[in-house]
Amino acid sequence: MEIRPMIHAQRLVDAFLRLARLNSPALQEEEIGRELAGILPELGCAVEVQRYGQSFNIIAHRPGTAGNAPPLLLCAHMDTVEPTPDIQFIVADGIIRTSGSTILGADNKSAIAQILEALAVLKEQRLAHAPLEIVFTSAEEKGLLGARNLHMPDLRSRHGIVLDVSGPPGRIVIAAPARQQFAVTVHGRAAHAGIEPEKGVNAVRIAAEIIAELPDGRLDEETTFNVSMLMGGSASNIVPKEAIIHGEFRTHSRARIAELTERIQVTARAAAERSGAGVEVRIETEYEAFRIADQQPFLAFAARVLGECGLTPETVTSGGGSDANILNRHGICCLNLSNGMRDIHTTDEHISTEDLVTGAEILIRAACAFPMYKQFDNSFPSSGSVPALP
After folding, report:
1. Active-site residue (options: 29, 107, 133, 140)
2. What is the 3-state secondary structure (H, E, C) of the chain?
3. What's the pLDDT tens digit per position in 206-250?
4. 81: how many CB neighbours lie within 10 A of its CB?
5. Confidence band of 374 (pLDDT split at 50, 70, 90)
6. Tens digits of per-residue pLDDT, 55-114?
7. How far apart are CA 10 and CA 7, in angstroms?
8. Whole-model pTM?
9. Is-contact 248 178, C-beta < 8 A?
10. Are residues 75 and 334 in contact, defined by beta-carbon separation less than 8 angstroms?
11. If you average pLDDT over residues 303-329, what whole number do you get?
């Protein structure tokens, strides 16, 4: 089936630019949410807005047209890593970028535009496809907050595709790490720094000692550690009575989580005891790791879809999290695919119109091929010959 001629490239570009103009930093997604809630019904979807304490997620259902097929989930996030007010675009030589004063927001609005275009093509061409569950999350850039607040019982899909990997289309994330956030609060004692400093216990200095003894950067192939912030003190003439260290570590290994958790606690307590200070350590799991087994049939399915798009599938292990971490944790086998966005989280962020089209093609082919997935679910090969897709 020839898919690319069915895709309206200019409509896709226009949709992306329209979305990118909507300022939607994490927890401020109301404007883009209203836009999407208005568009999705026109594309044949029933829409539900799921609100939680700080924001909301959008879930849309589109009935299948290929018999009794299982549903397939498509997911992207609405927020951007930082604000984009008054964003200005440059579209030249097939590349979309900003003027350099803001990020572009291709992370992840390019994926939203690709999903919308796929829905439009499926409707216009009356293509037989699986039932689709569309999930647009909020505050992904705030530790997957929207996905963590999804009402999972509302989702029927057991398989899903997330488009939230930078780089050329063709990459499949098969593993991503857990993320642990930590805060260490040091309780010292205030005193006048010039008259009686010996009566004080300098919380900032103790915090600095703790930081110096903690690991930093890449610890091994699957583990990173970062102290991101030190706050404390109020004036130069006061021995600071409190200091707070913030940081994170990421790893694919449960053993490493236990090891680093203990190291933070032991290091903080030892430094506090040496100086007669108090200390509190808080370590929280923001999201858990996932790994897709090599023999997972859905991985082979995705690889074949990419091959049908003229791409060479490449499996990668990521150092960052995505909504796929949460969805996999809740029993939805979810693959995170690259969709063409480049240099994300920087003012050099850009995407090509060619990659925008390719991302939409991947989704259309997946939706049309998924109805036949169950017939080879238990025997679908992880390598070698794979049944042709429509």
Report:
1. 140
2. CCCHHHCCHHHHHHHHHHHHCCCCECCCCHHHHHHHHHHHHHHCCEEEEEECCCCEEEEEEECCCCCCCCCEEEEEECCECCCCCCCCEEEECCEEEECCCCCCCHHHHHHHHHHHHHHHHHHHCCCCCCCEEEEEECCHHHCCHHHHCCCHHHCCCCEEEEEEECCCCCEEEEEECEEEEEEEEEECECCECCCCHHHCECHHHHHHHHHHHCCCEEEECCEEEEEEEEEECCCCCECCCEEEEEEEEEECCHHHHHHHHHHHHHHHHHHHHHHCCEEEEEEEEEECCEECCCCCHHHHHHHHHHHHCCCCCEEEECCCCCHHHHHHHCCCEEEEEECCCECCCCCCCEEEHHHHHHHHHHHHHHHHHHHHCHHHCCCCCCCCCCCCCC
3. 999 999 999 999 999 999 999 999 999 999 999 999 999 999 999
4. 18
5. low
6. 999 999 999 999 889 999 999 999 999 999 999 999 999 999 999 999 999 999 999 999
7. 9
8. 0.92
9. no
10. yes
11. 96
The residue to which tokens 């920087």 are assigned: 346
In the numeric block, which tokens belong to residue 366? 């997946």
What are 145-157's pLDDT values in tens digits?
A: 999 999 999 999 9
As a whole number, the mean pLDDT across the chain is 94
> 30-39 and 9-20 are packed helices; what angle lies between their axes, rounded to 10 degrees?
150
Active-site residue (options: 79, 141, 209, 349):
79
Residue with tokens 């949410």, as numbered in its chain: 33
**Catalytic (active site) residue 140:** yes
Alpha carbon of residue 68 to chain centroid: 31
